[in-house]
Amino acid sequence: MRLFEAIIDANHRAIAGDKTAGVRPSEFADSLPVAALTCMDRRLNPLIPEVLGLPEEDFIWVRNAGNIVSGPVSCAIRSLAVACLLGGAKEVAVIGHTNCMMRQLTVSQLLDLLASLGVQRSALPENVVEFFGIFASERENVIRACQIVRRSPLISPRVPVHGLMVDLETGRLEWLVNGYESVKGVPDKISAGLEKAEQALSVLETVGKFAVGPVKFGETKLGEIVSGARSLLDKVEPLVSDEAAPKAEAEKPSEHPTDVSAPPPLQMRMRLRKDRNRP
Predict the structure, then answer these.
(1) How far apart (Å, rounded) are the C-alpha atoms in residues 104 and 52?
(2) How far apart are CA 8 and CA 27, in angstroms?
(3) Which domain holds residue 56?
(4) Does residue 260 lie in a domain region?
(5) Across residues 67-91, what is the average pLDDT?
């Protein structure tokens, strides 16, 4: 059983009332830590660590409004890339949630709220929907985000990219995108090209190197790296879209995992709150 298979299994068993359900992080050391992109909704603060069943030191939490990924070299991608390059993240998860305020927000409501704060329409980009990432479906938003992360030249093709939904009322996880399938399906003949993208972007590490005393940065400009990544993406993406589909059916999570010694139980404290619908 792989890491997210164990996470989903433990989560569902805990929801069903199994007090022994839990994840044993020591068994998945090669897959940890995990980089998780979620919404910034404060209702997720106590929930995400519980539903993943991982100690805080085993996941890197990246957050924005609506867990939105706008493009293959966007700010969210940059944070996930740094989580992998410098934080050592081995797997990535985009986690959406039910009752997301970004899904409920309309353009007119957004403009009215901005105007109430003194922000005029003329100060905003022409395409407000695209700029703020307003979406109509939490599930589709997660699936789209995973697709963008998967084809980004900043994320190694060896890193599984998962998509999940968490129910705010119950804490139940739904596995929308199985990242192990896409990793298994990367064709050998394009993996070399993707590998070059990964190597080129490792230059990011030089940006973060400091010397004792006066601060010294590498001379490579981050803008040049991103520009080169865009160019490489244009060359690699057609190959990925045409040939990256898995040729073999992915291994399915076991419905009846072998019972071994009891892991730390998941603390599923799903309390209804009066401010449940507040961001």
Answers:
(1) 26
(2) 15
(3) 3-243
(4) no
(5) 97
pLDDT-above-90 percentage for the chain: 60
Distance (Å, rounded) from C-alpha 78 to C-alpha 244?
23
Single-letter residue type at 239: L
Give domain status of residue 96, yes or no: yes
Residue 95 has pLDDT above 70, yes or no: yes
Backbone angles phi, psi at 218, to 5 degrees: -65, 160
Give the end-to-end CA distance of the chain in Å, rounded to a whole number.
36
CA dist., res. 8 & res. 17, Å (int):
14
pLDDT average, residue stretch 164-180: 97
Say if CB 28 and CB 6 are below 8 A apart. Answer: yes
Q: pTM for the whole thing?
A: 0.70
Distance separating alpha carbons of residues 146 and 230, to the nearest angstrom? 18
CB neighbours of residue 137 within 10 Å:
12
Residue 18 forms part of a structural domain: yes
Give whole-number Cα distances, 86 to 1, 72, 90, 207, in Å: 27, 19, 11, 11
The CATH number assigned to the domain holding 151 equals 3.40.1050.10
218 vs 125, more confident: 125
The rounded percent of the chain whose pLDDT value lies above 70 is 66
Do residues 76 and 60 make contact, with C-beta atoms less than 8 angstroms apart? no
Q: Work out how many domains the chain is built from and give that number.
A: 1
Sort 77 into a burial class: Cβ within 10 Å, 0-12 / 13-18 / 19+: buried
Residue 150, both tokens? 């998967």
pLDDT tops 80 at residue 164 = yes
Angle, to 10 degrees, between the axis of helix 138-151 and the axis of helix 222-243? 110
Give the per-residue pLDDT at 274.
45
